[in-house]
Specification:
The complex is a heterodimer of chains A (182) and B (270). Chain A has 182 residues and is mainly α. Chain A has five helices and no strands. Chain A has helices spanning 2-59, 67-81, 85-105, 113-148, 152-159. With 270 residues, chain B is of the alpha/beta class. Chain B has eight helices and five strands. Chain B is globular. The chains are: A mainly alpha (182), B alpha/beta (270). Chains A and B meet through helix 3 and helix 4 of A and helix 1, helix 4 and strand 5 of B.
């Protein structure tokens, strides 16, 4: 009888340990997803922060009433308000348009080191956004796989671990803004 | 200039498209293995022996900081854009220290006339995108346009090294200083910015545990090669290199540190 009880206790301990490991594993993956998401947000923020730089760089050339300047002012308020991927995509198109206008109206900008450096920063930020979105999607995929698999899915259900969302393309978003430059 | 701008905007366009299309399942490019973990990796054969040795030596000298500057010349990008390829290569090879992520990759694809400087998280302060872009525009592509690939690469490497030296407060190549390269903005700074800058500098100098300062005490005895570099004279190389015989064979690679990059840096073409 004693042996049976001991056996049961050992079994319970093992099961409990297994559950603990499983739970902690889920926590880690979830944290990873959160971490990668905040990286994406940081990069979006970085892009918003560059818009005032664009304004400053163009300031020496463009007049307040110019289309360029007005376009930049709109971008500023736009980036402050934007929160969904769709809104950002819209703003990206605007940004390309405004830069095209600026360069057309003030060709000397092409020779301005600050402007060129700003272009680097904008391109770099876009690249960072792309990279961080990829990292986020990878983390989400790993996490989602884990919570959907048996038997972890039971644990996941019990403790409220839900599927995370991947970044997906918006409908009609495949058409990239036309940048015409010569 | 027209081509440069087109290139830059093509880059921007490409990256915008990547976002708009929303790359969920990212098919990875086939990155060459580089099993010996060479700091100067050349599939095409444009690097001179001198340049390769220079690159190897600066990495050995940088070992204490964990920073790594890798130059990679590839035959083709396998149909991928250079941003994705560079980031993938950086991460697969693991350039820079694992904790500090202080690696830099200078990737050149001569057949496709594209290059990129990819900067790890840890060095993004020292080498922001704008400076990386300037290095490409001012120090590298002018040479590339004249088919002087080796010169362009060594010049770019030195420009990168100058910034890394500044970051860690160390002198590896005494013949170069950050001031030699044109990174500075032509804009004038407002008094407020200058004041803020001075306050920051004050705290940095008088604060504790500034990581950069560690490097200083190490450069005492037995460090022949900064001396040799500062006396360096391009015609006379055989003599100078003789003293480094011991470095020859196996030190081509040193082991990458496992660092990662977040996509910072700049691209260019010619």
């Amino acid at each position: 009888m004693k042996k049976l009880i001991t056996g049961l206790v050992v079994l319970l301990v093992i099961i409990f340990a297994g559950l603990m490991v499983s739970y902690n594993g889920l926590v880690n993956l979830d944290e990873e997803v959160q971490n990668k998401w905040s990286q994406v947000e940081t990069n979006y923020q970085r892009r918003s922060d560059l818009i005032p730089n664009l304004a400053n760089t163009v300031k020496g050339y463009a007049e307040h009433e110019s289309e360029t300047f007005k376009g930049i002012a709109e971008l500023r308020s736009g980036y402050k308000k934007a929160s969904t991927p769709k809104e950002y995509q819209q703003l990206d198109k605007e940004l390309s348009r405004v830069i095209n206008i600026a360069v057309e109206s003030y060709p000397q900008l092409k020779a301005n080191e600050n402007f060129l450096a700003l272009q680097d920063e904008l391109a770099g930020t876009e690249n960072r956004i792309a990279v961080s979105r990829r990292d986020y999607n990878n983390a989400v995929t790993i996490y989602n796989k884990k919570i959907r698999r048996f038997p972890t899915n039971i644990m996941a259900g019990m403790f409220g671990f839900e599927k995370a969302d991947l970044f997906e393309a918006e409908k009609g978003a495949e058409k990239a803004p036309e940048i015409n430059f010569d | 200039m027209g081509i440069k701008r087109k290139r830059l905007l093509t880059v921007t366009l490409t990256v915008f498209m990547a976002i708009l299309i929303g790359i969920n399942t990212f098919a990875s490019p086939n990155i060459p293995k580089n099993p010996r973990q060479l700091f100067a990796y050349d599939e095409v054969g444009i690097l001179s022996k001198e340049t390769s040795q220079y690159i190897n030596h600066i990495n050995l000298a940088l070992k204490e900081t964990g920073a790594q500057i890798v130059v990679s010349v590839v035959k083709d990008l396998g149909g991928y854009d250079i941003e994705s390829y560079a980031n993938e290569m950086f991460r697969e090879w693991g350039i820079g220290d694992k904790e500090k992520n202080n690696g830099v990759l200078l990737l050149v694809a001569p057949d496709e006339r594209k290059l990129r400087i990819e900067v790890g998280y840890g060095l993004e302060g020292a080498i922001p995108d704008g400076k990386a872009g300037r290095i490409i525009r001012n120090e590298i592509t002018p040479y590339f346009k004249n088919n002087q690939y080796d010169e362009g690469i060594i010049n770019g490497t030195k420009a990168i090294l100058a910034l890394v030296q500044e970051e860690y407060g160390i002198k590896i190549d005494n013949s170069i200083k950050a001031e030699d390269f044109n990174y500075e903005d032509s804009s004038k700074e407002s008094p407020i910015e200058i004041l803020v800058f001075m306050i920051i500098v004050f705290f940095v100098l008088f604060g504790k545990g500034r990581r950069g300062r560690r490097g200083r005490r190490r450069h005492g005895s037995g460090y022949i090669w900064p001396m040799i570099l500062s006396n360096r004279d391009n015609d006379d190389d055989d003599d100078k290199f003789g003293g480094w015989g011991g470095f020859g064979g196996g030190s081509g690679g040193g082991g990458f540190g496992g660092g990662s990059s977040g996509g910072g840096g700049a691209s260019g073409g010619w």
